[in-house]
Request: fold
Amino acid sequence: MRIALITATPQSVREGSGTFVASETLRRGLSALGHEVRVIAPTGSALPFAYTLRRFTFNQRLGTTHVDDADLVVGFDMDGFRLAGRLPVPFVAYIHGILADEARFERGLVAASMRLQSRAERASARRAALVLTLSRYARGRITQVYGLEPERVAVVPPALDIARWRAALEAHADRRRSAPTVLCVARMYPRKNIASLVRATAVLRSRVPDVQVRIVGDGPERRRLERLVRRLNLRAQVRLEGQLGFGQLARAYAGCDIFCLPSLQEGFGLVFLEAAAAGRRSSGRRPGSPARG
Amino acid sequence: MGTANRAMVERFAPSSVAQQFLDVVSPLAAGRERQ
Reply:
């Protein structure tokens, strides 16, 4: 089968985060099974504030001729929304984060741009022949926020490049810190709720004085988190590591005792799977629970 | 990695997920071929 994957998500882990990892790993999996897969994506990278503009421009320029050699077209999240329902071949919307759901937990410009993008995502989902998403939670939210019938939404989880992870993790198999270490890996958005982990560290410190909390990732919340760490006098316990390369990330998983991500919303949470690949237990919270409580 | 963890993670191997993807979308493509 010839499959076209449409995505404006930056084609790197650093910028594209879990959505890029999931789409790229699916591409490789389909290619390995003998299918012809073509990724249609913008070239170059955009500054964060220009991302939404670039995404809409990319979609505006997409025409049916871009996918006329495909038997199946898959649009990730909102991407490809202008083609949905206009093609002679099936269009599938593969929704990872559910923009309308994520926006509930964000602030300011990030929330505004997510709401804008969620309108396109809703249009894509409603016009698609089928909607795919990553988890039962995401399926439930999509049916609610985009008003879809449940039978039009199927769950296909993200893939993890297990061979690559195992090879990297085995290189650090004997790496355990002497101090009890908690690891968090996330883009620093409000919905990731990393501030809760920082505040919890202040409590944990009184019971486990040598506890270490490593937070890997970057994003709009970084300054706020840095201030919180200083205010709670946790500089000896909490390290904001910034973005790490793949080898360093594997080393961080191998070196932790427990993984923690207290997200308020996750379409899936690929990092929990990465922690499981490293044989580490995870701590999180029930996705979406604040909205119910 | 523990046995249970290993079995759980295996479900997310690229070939396994790609097959799940194909199982779901293939009826759409097959329907098109019949048309």
Observations:
- The longest helix of chain B spans residues 14-34.
